């Protein structure tokens, strides 16, 4: 471990401690910019103190879980920090979930309080009504001063700061428990890897703050390291440009689907991106065709990175000053180790595909209330990500697919991401996702779900011919389904389980 890596884990305190230290150094520096600002570090400190006092007056005790249900904006940021100052554990809620799904997370986390934005009041009430013993609901807009902020003794390496619920791709969502130290060290890794500059950089955050990528990189990194952020309440390509221009954002955080949509902006819309010097992409694989098209149109580099919620989440990213390698998610960030292992847990050499394992101070404490699932996810202090990938001679990592998305056709391993990359290169295809479907003779066959740039621009024969030209015979999709859009979660990741479910319904599987 080099000197920089050692600094990642050195002198770690709780999140409020590090925030207050920054406030003391630069109280009047703008923290929130753009149409929802301005708001200084000192102003947020005072507002979050008042909210923390109100939570204490409402009966919050150290270690209590508090559900936070709000769109991107000052209310979410004040609520997040106020909960931590009062000694609570933040349980961010996905604003796109239905009341039944919200009720499950409220119950599973044992939330004592339920903070909600007034615009989401009806959903909050419906979720609480579905529970026999609902948590006390508190309107974020009505919370003022209360008692003085309590002096809470926190062990940053043991005390949970947040419980982030995964998307539940294989069943019920699981709560990843991230301690104060997990999150503090990951923000330090982000600062070092992206070479962000306090007092200069301003991160535009349109990704939902309840998601791990946005929360750690877009919220906690500015809070703890003197950066600014420009929150955007909803994703609309033109609106993003307006907020960039108004706030002077220098760094954009996005997911691949967003970059594809920005390519449709007119020249005047692209001109609003002049302040941006750097883009970061995560949450899903970034097609090379999308990256190249965006960089040519906007003259701004996209640095692709990766990391699961359970790891803080950032584990690796391409460096800002190069080199950049097409298709790679880059080297590990400082403080994080990554390795490739086979199914038996044996380390694999350079170039061989296996499961990506991660360890370091940002890796979660475990899954909330699920000791068996936690034990299954770890091999010693290594977290088993479920991603399949390989590393090159320089220690850069490449992801080929999720382990559960691997398709076996006639006994041969097929990685859907490889096929998706080929489909994305076709000028008539806007988006594509490939899944496997059971077959009595071949084991599985490939099904491509395709979104065209213009209806009727291609037919099934043309798509399969394109694939035959660029892929092996076993990698050509057996079926092609044209869709108006691909199902995605709030973070922009394609929900392949929904595509598989469509196939099950078509085959009569209950």
Outline the secondary-structure elements:
Elements (H helix, E strand, L loop, with lengths): L2 H7 L5 H11 L4 E3 L6 E2 H17 L7 E5 L4 H12 L3 E4 L6 H11 L3 E4 L4 H9 L6 E4 L20 E6 L9 E5 H15 L7 E4 L6 H14 L2 E4 L5 H11 L3 E4 L1 H7 L4 H5 L6 E4 L6 H11 L3 E5 L9 E2 L19 E5 L12 E6 L6 E2 L3 H7 E2 L2 E10 L5 E6 L4 E3 L2 E3 L1 H9 L4 E11 L3 E10 L7 H11 L8 E4 L13 H11 L4
Parallel strand pairs: 3-4, 3-5, 5-6, 9-10, 9-11, 11-12, 12-13, 24-25
Antiparallel strand pairs: 1-2, 7-8, 8-17, 13-14, 15-16, 16-19, 18-19, 19-20, 21-22, 23-24
Question: So what's the CATH class of the largest domain?
Answer: Alpha Beta
SS summary, helix count:
16
Shape designation: globular
Low-confidence stretches: none
Helical/strand content category: alpha/beta
Any idea of the CATH topology of the largest domain? Rossmann fold
**Strand content bin:** 15-25%
What would CATH call the architecture of the largest domain? Answer: 3-Layer(aba) Sandwich
Mean pLDDT across residues: 92
Strand order of the largest sheet: 10-9-11-12-13-14
Helix amount: 25-40%
Radius of gyration computed on alpha carbons: 23 Å
Alpha-carbon distance between the two ends: 52 Å
- Please tell me the total number of domains: 2
Instruction: Give the total of beta strands.
Output: 25
Largest sheet: 6 strands, mixed
Corresponding CATH superfamily of the largest domain? ANL, N-terminal domain
